[in-house]
Amino acid sequence: MSTKNGSSKAPAASQDSAKQRPAHEIRLGRIKAAIWANEGDNGTWFNVTVSRSYKDGDEWKSASSFGRDELLTLAKVADMANTWIHGQSQSPPSNGHESEQPGEEIPY
């Protein structure tokens, strides 16, 4: 099927399906943290975007600014995102026990 300019709709559909999705989302009320996974030579790292949902008439929109009464919820969402990310970087010990080597550095 072609559009007015002669291009096919199929490539647009495949672009939409290839759109990157967050690795994880955390939502408390109208405050949301989207956690994005990135791959590189040194492995996976994560970035977080936070937003606040609000309604403009009948349409839901999002903003990246927060009011005084939303700051504690924002802090909690950021804390939960931090906890989730740290949980992803920890691999279970091979022998089922915590490492007993003193001075072992914990990677971030």
Short description:
26% of the residues lie in helices and 31% in strands. The chain has helices spanning 9-17, 71-89, and strands at residues 24-28, 31-40, 43-56, 59-63. The protein is flat and about 50 Å long.
Characterization of this structure:
The protein contains two helices and four strands, in the order αββββα. The chain is α+β, with helices and mostly antiparallel strands. The protein has a domain at 20-89. The protein has a four-stranded antiparallel sheet with strand order 1-2-3-4, covered by helices on one side.
Query: Major sheet, described briefly?
Result: 4 strands, antiparallel
Radius of gyration: 20 Å
**What portion of the residues fall into strands of 2 or more residues?**
25-35%
Determine the N-to-C terminus distance. 49 Å
Q: What gross morphology would you assign?
A: flat
Report the order of strands and helices: HEEEEH
Class derived from helix and strand content: alpha+beta
Which tags fit this structure?
4-stranded antiparallel beta sheet; alpha+beta; flat; 108 residues
Secondary structure topology:
Blueprint: H1 9-17, E1 24-28, E2 31-40, E3 43-56, E4 59-63, H2 71-89
Antiparallel strand pairs: 1-2, 2-3, 3-4
